[in-house]
Design a protein that fits this description.
By secondary structure, the protein is mainly α. It is about 80% helix and about 0% strand. α2 packs antiparallel against α3 and α4 packs antiparallel against α5. The radius of gyration is 25 Å and the shape is flat.
Length: about 160
């Protein structure tokens, strides 16, 4: 009986260790102890490298694309900082007994106003990106977009 208890305790301990180790390694190594800035820099680098490879960009084009990507990401991070505030306002609105359409519209309008500078920046960056590409690179870009357009939104398979 005592041996069975010890065996059970050892098996439970082993199971606990396996569970802890399994959970530890289920999180990708690249996301452990990584700041938002580091993750953003890594994603920018990966995107720029892929564009360079796919469109055969020269060093000057690569440099300009990296600057554009960094600028867009900085603005996107700034937009994310206001997300918690917007969410709190929306939850406060939902917790009320009566919700007026004007209040909901006000929240949406406020959110849209925050996005206007980002839309303008993106349009400017897109025009600049188009300008730095050669006609052959533009053609290759169009082919790549056409090749991937059947996938739709990046979230389409998750719902």
């Amino acid at each position: 009986m005592r041996n069975k208890k010890h065996l059970l305790i050892r098996l439970l301990g082993l199971l606990g260790i396996i569970t802890i180790v399994g959970c530890h390694y289920s999180v990708p190594l690249s996301f452990r102890q990584e700041t938002t800035e580091e993750r953003t820099a890594r994603r920018i680098e990966r995107a720029v490298d892929k564009l360079t490879r796919e469109l055969d960009l020269n060093s000057e084009q690569k440099k300009r694309v990296r600057i554009m990507a960094e600028t867009i990401c900085e603005k996107a991070i700034d937009l994310q900082k206001g997300h918690a505030e917007s969410k709190t306002e929306f939850l406060t609105l939902l917790s009320q007994d009566n919700v007026a359409a004007a209040e909901v519209q006000g929240l949406i309008t406020k959110k849209m106003e925050r996005f206007k500078p980002m839309v303008a920046l993106f349009a400017t960056q897109m025009a600049e990106f188009h300008e730095i590409l050669t006609p052959e690179q533009r053609k290759r870009l169009i082919e790549k977009v056409e090749e991937h357009k059947h996938r739709g939104c990046r979230f389409s398979g998750r719902w």
